[in-house]
Amino acid sequence: QSVLTQPPSASGTPGQRVTISCSGSSSNIGSNTVNWYQQLPGTAPKLLIHSNNQRPSGVPDRFSGSKSGTSASLAISGLQSEDEADYYCATWSDSLNGRVFGGGTKLTVL
Amino acid sequence: EVQLVESGGGLVQPGRSLRLSCAASGFSFSSYSMNWVRQAPGKGLEWVSYISSSISTIYYADSVKGRFTISRDNAKNSVYLQMNSLRDEDTAVYYCARELLTDLDYWGQGTLVTVSS
Question: Which of A49, A99, A100, A105 to mutate to test the interface with B (most CBs of B within 10 A)?
Fold first, then answer.
């Protein structure tokens, strides 16, 4: 299983607000910044949030990230059908000396 | 425009070798660290390896340590992944990704490696 723990699925209706959690430990999330990636069906992952809560240019402000202690979360407000994708959290692990990903959360827009 | 184009994937028998390439363009390649990340069919993302811009620092995931070797040629704007002693569980789409500070900010489209007899 993955070093970072995410719920396997999440869902919401258009316009709703959805949050996806990512749980780690002191050696990964607790001591490093968290990134979030969006992977639309059949495409490569795309950086969605960096440095815990920063959006790259072009990412809508409907997407926001936060981190507290050894956990992080991604919030999507004003849910849209095009947000249907897999979402992954990631960070560096000091104990493993490598990057670690969450198992991914499949977001369904009902 | 930043572009990363992977190549070299294909069908290979267990125990054999394969070399992946990633050609970069649209940015100053020699200034950036690079990574390989893979995704098994229907599964999540798994980080594979990292190489710093100056080649002074290299890391591997435990699952590939001793079998895979990352390298780069800054004159050719390319990063490589030499994969030896391939196993069934190495079957995946392999992505190269540029690293900006601690983020993988650009990804290639991936190349599929299938290990099967």
Answer: A99
pLDDT tens string for chain A (110 positions)?
A: 889 999 999 999 999 999 999 999 999 999 999 999 999 999 999 999 999 999 999 999 999 999 999 999 999 999 999 999 999 999 999 999 999 999 999 999 99
A79, A82, A84, A106, B42 from A41: Cα distances, Å? 17, 10, 8, 10, 11
Q: Which of A45, A92, A98 lies at the smallest CB-CB distance from B61? A: A98
The minimal CB distance from A44 to the residues B50, B59, B108 is found for: B108
**Which pair of tokens denotes residue A55?**
């959006």
- Separation between Cα atoms, residue B36 and residue B31, nearest integer Å: 17
In terms of CA atoms, which chain B residue is nearest residue A41?
B42
